[in-house]
């Protein structure tokens, strides 16, 4: 019972965080937009050098919303 309540609360907290702040820091470049190499740095291809990525929960929300509107 306690595990189910904890899971529901954590899911609601994550969903509210995805709604308020849909972008998180990029995992590859840690939000810097550049990746260090031996000879200088290069732009991060995963986030297109913005340092931001769309959160997984927001990505799922956008997909479900798109399916609903395309009906």
TrEMBL record:
This is Uncharacterized protein. It comes from Nonomuraea longispora.
